Amino acid sequence: MALMITDECINCDVCEPECPNEAIYLGEVIYEIDPNRCTECVGHFDEPQCVQVCPVACIPVNRAHVEDRETLWQKYRRLQAEAQAAPVPAAGAGKPAA
Ligand code: SF4
Ligand code: SF4
User: Fold this and answer.
1) Residues with Cβ < 8 Å from 21, sequence gap 6 or more?
2) How far is the CA of 20 from the centre of ligand 2 (A)?
3) Mutational test site, ligand 1, from 1, 3, 16, max ligand atoms within 8 Å of CB
4) Are 3 and 60 a contacting pair, CB within 8 Å?
5) Would 90 be classed as within a structural domain?
6) Rounded to two decimals, what is the model's pTM?
7) CATH number of 20's domain
């Protein structure tokens, strides 16, 4: 299952940089988790990193997104493939022509 952030969130900014999948973002009011990017940290860590650091324990599982471990692993693999397919600036890009 993906995780979710409840309205107990105090917008402390601590969890967002800890997410290895860039699944956490600041929504209109509080931080939110994109269920298409959250793998419960499967593929990266043994425990959900956001849960480890949240000072108010407001990150439960999202029961609207029931997924078993294999499904989370497949999501991790998809995200890795997408990251590798992203265009990388060519070496020397931006330098004036000689
Ligand atoms: Fe990101 Fe892991 Fe938290 Fe999911 S459980 S939002 S992948 S830090
Ligand atoms: Fe909100 Fe917890 Fe993330 Fe802080 S760590 S922004 S309280 S969800």
Assistant:
1) 37, 38, 39, 41, 44, 76, 79
2) 15
3) 3
4) yes
5) no
6) 0.88
7) 3.30.70.20
Kindly state whether residue 95 falls inside one of the protein's structural domains: no
Q: Is 38 in the pocket of ligand 2 (CB under 6 A)?
A: no
C-alpha 48 – ligand 1 centre gap (Å): 5
d(CA 55, CA 53) in angstroms, rounded, equals: 6
3-state secondary structure of 73: helix
- Model pLDDT for residues 22-63, shown as the tens digit of each residue: 999 999 999 999 999 999 999 999 999 999 999 999 999 999
Whether the CB of 56 sits within 6 Å of ligand 2: yes
Ligand 1, atom 1: closest residue by C-alpha = 19
User: What is the rounded CA–CA span in Å between residue 47 and residue 84?
Assistant: 24
Domain of 30 in residue numbering reads as: 16-84
